[in-house]
Amino acid sequence: MQPRRSALLMIALGLVFTTALSLIPYALRLWQSDEHQSVAHSFSTYAADLPSPVVREPVFDVAAWYAARGEELERHGVYVETLDGSQVLAALNSDVPFNPASLSKLATSLAALERFGADHRFRTDVRLDGTLDARGTFSGSVYVTSDDPLFGDVQAGAIATRLRERGVRRIVGTVFVSPGFCFNFTDAPEEAAARLVRALKMGQPKTGVAEPPPLAPAISYESYRLRDVLLYMNAHSSNFVADRLTALVGGPEAIQKMLIERVGLQAHEVFIECGSGLGHNRLTPRGIVATLRALVEELQRQGLSPEEIMPFAGCDAGTLRHRLRGTPLEGALVGKTGTLTTIDGGMASLAGVVYTADRGLVLFALLNQGPQVWQSRQMEDELLLELLSNESTPRVPAGPASRRQLLPPLAAEKSAE
Predict the structure, then answer these.
(1) Which class for 332: exposed (0-12), middle (13-18), buried (19 or more C-beta within 10 A)?
(2) Strands 88-92 and 121-132: what pairing?
(3) How confident is the model over 236-290, as pLDDT tens digits?
(4) What is the DSSP letter of 53?
(5) Which residues contact 195 (CB under 8 A, 6 or more apart)?
(6) Which of 222, 233, 314, 328 has a CB 3.0–4.6 Å from the CB of 241, allowing a cystine?
(7) In 3D, which of 162, 144, 149 has the Cα closest to residue 120?
């Protein structure tokens, strides 16, 4: 009887032990679940204490604005933002690369300002290698070197005056110009040398292209200030001046490098083939606004305002002369136009700065692709007027609100855009 009882007891103990073992995984799962919930609760409590990311939604529905006019949205790029970056007023395809056309000159302006400074003057040197007789005839070689992108009749006249002051009335020999010399928007040095000789009116010497010998300059002449050159370039959208400045700052590659390293643009959203905007350049609307911001900051660092290198709409001579005239933006907007009629299917662009009473400086970039350039320009003006009338109050800054004399009279160059 006793062995049987012991066996039953052992069986009972085994069942209890087996049941306990089977409950261990379930207990562990419950414990892990409670711990996980506790950790999750702690993390969610911590996350709730973190500041929420700032989402800056545009205040103006520019996509609906274009759609209401039957426009294909992918053909338009828009970015409008306050100078301090605190408010985006409008955005459409803001990170899509477009051909900026002559808006590229904004980057060229920034590169030139950083490289030379706003008060830099380009230098022209004249070296004389020969003899001057009592009758005022100079026999020998005259060497003219210059990096002035606006060298022309005015500068040649000043040099002729100074030569006469030194007793030179006639040149017999050769007038040489440096390989980079230009004259009246002609960058072929041989042709530039021939034009220079005609402008000097000192006989009919031969012409040539050569670097000067190591002689001290007999005459030196300084150009307009860089700020004046940039205002002329941007107002008239001078491709010639832009390309000359591009060469002086190191070429298109140097401008592209500056936009990436200095302005902070991503490499995949910028390509600069030429500093004037002719060709297949690429910039995004947001990238253009970033370039504008860097340009305004550089101008401020040098004690200048945007209108000292960009024209007023509706006031200054050039491509903005007749834009937005008679509207609240006349005299309150300074900017740069961009136009291509064949490349990339045609482009009409406008970018710049608007002075406002309530938002400070507002930066904008509008890019429109398609062959209807005139229609695109009208839409640009209408969009800016509607956007800024609804969301801010344009303000004409102190200073000239009427047409300014951009530079002393120069040989005419047809305005590009």
Answers:
(1) buried
(2) unpaired
(3) 999 999 999 999 999 999 999 999 999 999 999 999 999 999 999 999 999 999 9
(4) P
(5) 183, 184, 186
(6) 233
(7) 149
Question: In the chain, what are the domain boundaries?
Answer: 62-119+226-391, 122-225
Residue type, 229: V
Please state, for a pLDDT cut of 70, what percent of the chain lies above it.
82
Looking at 3.40.309.10, 3.40.50.10860, 3.30.1330.60, 3.50.80.20, the CATH number of the domain 122-225 comes to 3.50.80.20
Extract the tokens encoding 173.
């020999």
Correct CATH for 62-119+226-391 of 3.40.50.10860, 3.30.390.10, 3.40.50.1240, 3.40.710.10: 3.40.710.10
What pTM was estimated for this model as a whole? 0.83
What's the mean per-residue pLDDT of the chain? 86
Tokens representing 152?
Answer: 């022309």
Can you read off the two tokens belonging to residue 304?
């200048």
Q: Answer with the residue of higher pLDDT: 57 or 266.
A: 266
Tokens representing 166 are 């030194």
Token pair for 315: 């006031």
> What residues contact 67, with CB distance under 8 A and at least 6 apart?
73
Query: Which pLDDT does position 31 carry in this prediction?
Result: 36
